[in-house]
Every structure is written in structure tokens, then in C-alpha cells.
Amino acid sequence: MTSAAAGEFRPHRVAVLALDGLLPFELGIPHRIFGYPRDARGRPLYEVVTCSTRPPGPVETDADFAVHVAHGPQTLATADTVIVPASYERGPLYDEGRLTDELAAALARIRPGTRLASICTGVYVLAAAGRLDGRPATTHWADAERFQRMFPKIKVDADVLFIDDGDVLTSAGVAAGIDLCLHMVRCDFGTAVANDVARRTVVPPHRDGGQAQYIHRPVPDPQVATTTAARAWALGRLHEPIQLRDLAEQEAMSVRTFTRRFREEVGVSPGQWLTRQRVERARHLLESTDLSMDQVARESGFNTAQSMRQHLQAALGVTPTAYRRAFRTGGGAERQDGVGTRR
Fold first, then answer.
1. Per-residue pLDDT reduced to its tens digit, 7-55
2. Residue 89 and residue 102 in contact, taking contact as beta carbons nearer than 8 Å
3. What is the dihedral of CA 26, 27, 30, 33, to 10 degrees?
4. Spatial distance between the Cα atoms of 53 and 66, rounded to a whole number of angstroms
5. What torsion, rounded to 10 degrees, do the Cα atoms 234, 236, 240, 243 define?
6. pTM for the whole structure
């Protein structure tokens, strides 16, 4: 980002808090996702640092090796975003829902207004710190019921991949941490930057549905019909009117069977999925073209600018005009005063 006052470029600083018992995969997600984005001049848009609650030294993992963490808790005071990956450390945090003195002292260093995020069971840290009371949150579906009992003031949603509640974000297990980090990149610097990171990481820029599609469901029989072809057909025709019966016809299913199968596979209804795809299409056009609002609305399938405005406001919390203003300049590389990025 560029400081309007001093004219100095400073990347958004992400501090990853490594706790004993951490899962190496989750620890690597923020470094992988936030390590890619660059501005038009090739400068990193993020600086990612790993820290612990202790002075520099080894932190145990759930594997047969430890990791050496080069930064202590003072790093948290310098962060724009703090991410807590999952860990399997057993003790007061997971058994009783309270922070140790060491962890509480570390978290106290975080500046007001810093964006907080958790991956999987890292949510216990935010919950025990009182940062989620009265707010929605998620975690791995297998742990959601226990987490809800331990923290009854939190509105736990076990069906989603992640929840963005403004300055606090939480994700479900393992790969959902990738979805969350891509979402933060998208919020900070736009769809084009996030999509480029997704391509480089060889993951979808936005996964359909939520955890519901993974709960108590065996791997589908490859002989059983799926809704994949219908989704591919719809993506090529987002600018056209698409009815539920049109989608069902692509799979030679009844509307009722198709709707049930679609929800099982994707985790949301066909209508919800279609609206989400149209929102993503509108975002791309607002960022990458000079089309008028009416043209963007027609190309993305919303028909009218007013309809598009309502859907983007509901999905993103901003109007199409405000979104274009924030992200039209190449992903925020030269924006002033942190516009388009959480600070």
C-alpha cells in the first residue's frame, strides 16, 4: 500500500501465530497465499511473518518435527492482520476454553483495529479471548458441536467454509483456510489479484457451497449422475435467463431430483449458486472493463443495474460504483489511504 502522508510504499503485514501442536499444512497456507500478490511494479503486496508466544525458538507441531520460529510475541503489535492456524495442543485453551497467561499476554499486544482470522481450531484462541462473543463463527464441522457448547455466546455455523464478520474472520478445517485467505486477498486487492493467486496455487478461486457437502457423505459413486455438466452449461450462459428446469434438462433429471442432487453436491441451492456466479462475473467486469453499469448488469445476468446493485450490496456490502472505484486501478497497487484493503 501507499501511504498518502509520506508517499512510502508499505505492504500489508500478516502475522501468523504459531502455537505448540500446530498443523504444518495450516501454518503454510497464509505464507503460500499471501506470498504471491504483487503490484504493477512487482512489489509484494503483503509481508508475512511467523511468530510465537515465546522468544524465538522451536515450536512443536503435530508431526514428528518442530519448526523454528524467528519472531516473538512483539511481532503481533506490528501486524495489520493476525492469523491463528489450527493446533492440537491440549490444555486450558481446548479443555476449558480459557487462555494461558502466556497466550493472553501475547494477544494483548495486538493493536485495536487489527484484522483477526483463524483457520480450523485456531478459532478457540479468538473465542477464549472474547473476540467472538455475540458474533458468527465457524470451525471444522467435526468440532462445531463441542465448540458451541464451550462458547454458547458465539453463533456457530458449521455449514460454511468461512465467515467474514468484518474485522474477525473464521474458517472451517484444513483447505477452507485457503478459501479464507483467498477471500481476504480478494477483499484487499480485488478479484483479478485473487484469481491470479488461485491460478498460481492451482486451486479454484472460489469453491461452491460449504461444509454441508462434506458432512457424513461418502464419496459419490462414479456411475451416479452428477450436476457438473449443468453447472458448466450455466457458466457459459450467465448473461441469459436461466430457469431451474433448464438446468435440470441438461442432466435429464426432474427438477426435484436435480435440486436435491445439486444441494448434496454443492452445498447450496441452484438459485443461490447461480446468483453467486453472477456476482463474481459482475466483479470481474467492474474491475477489468469500462462497461457501463447497465452493460455489466446485462453481461452478468442481472438484467438491470438496480438488480445488480441490490445483489452486490447484499453479497459484498458495497455498491457496484464503490467496488469499481476501489479495484479498477489494477488491484489496489497505487491506491491511497488503504482504500480497498483492511487496515
1. 688 999 999 999 999 999 999 999 999 999 998 889 999 999 999 999 9
2. no
3. -70
4. 15
5. -10
6. 0.72
